[in-house]
């Protein structure tokens, strides 16, 4: 009888130990399963949150606009030319040429200068103004300098060159000498009258001067 009781006690003890061990193992598995489900749930929630969150717009780089400031040019003043009696492109003289035409013709013929050339020179030099004064000391109708007039035989004062007859006499004499030195060629004559009897090379000023003369006499 005692043996049977001892056997039952041992069997009960073994069965209880097995159940305890099995319960411990099952508890561990349950905890692991719970953790796994928790992680899956968190990942699912993050994924949903990411889908519902609107995507951030890409940053747009600000570009600075550089505007060039262009300074407006000042309008140039223009002076209208008076109507000419011919298509030479030059204004009518302020004083009528006929007022001095007789004197011009007189000295042009005396010194063998073509009348048309003489008229053109007077018009370009002073526009028939006997009181014209140049920046370099030129005087009168033909803009002759006192030193040049004296070279031509004039012995009076500088003021005397404002007289039309006196001015045309010595100015025409100087033009005649320029014509001789220039070989009778119009532009060479103008070069030596404008730049001096010793001038040999055409310069821009004398070239433009000759162009005006040719436009008048042709």
UniProtKB/TrEMBL annotation:
Assigned keywords, A-Z: Signal
Pfam family name, one: SLT
Domain Transglycosylase SLT: 104-201
Similarity remark: Belongs to the virb1 family.
Protein name: Soluble lytic murein transglycosylase-like protein
Domain of life: Bacteria
Organism of this sequence: Rhizobium metallidurans
Chain segments carrying region Disordered: 33-65
Leader sequence residues: 1-23
Coiled-coil spans in chain: none
Keyword Lipid metabolism: no
């Amino acid at each position: 009888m005692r043996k049977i009781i001892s056997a039952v006690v041992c069997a009960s003890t073994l069965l209880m130990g097995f159940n305890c061990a099995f319960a411990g193992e099952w508890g561990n598995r349950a905890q692991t399963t719970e953790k796994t489900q928790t992680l899956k749930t968190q990942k699912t929630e993050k994924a949903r949150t990411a889908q519902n969150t609107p995507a951030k717009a890409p940053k747009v780089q600000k570009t600075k606009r550089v505007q060039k400031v262009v300074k407006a040019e000042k309008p140039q003043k223009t002076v209208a030319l008076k109507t000419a009696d011919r298509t030479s492109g030059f204004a009518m003289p302020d004083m009528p040429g006929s007022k001095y035409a007789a004197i011009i013709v007189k000295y042009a013929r005396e010194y063998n200068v073509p009348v048309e050339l003489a008229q053109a020179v007077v018009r370009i030099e002073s526009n028939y103004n006997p009181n014209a004064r140049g920046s370099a000391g030129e005087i009168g109708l033909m803009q002759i300098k006192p030193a040049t007039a004296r070279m031509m035989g004039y012995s009076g004062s500088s003021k005397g060159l404002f007289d039309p007859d006196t001015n045309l006499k010595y100015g025409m004499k100087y033009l005649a000498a320029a014509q001789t030195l220039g070989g009778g060629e119009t532009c060479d004559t103008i070069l030596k009258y404008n730049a001096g009897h010793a001038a040999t090379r055409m310069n821009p000023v004398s070239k433009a001067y000759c162009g005006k003369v040719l436009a008048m006499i042709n």
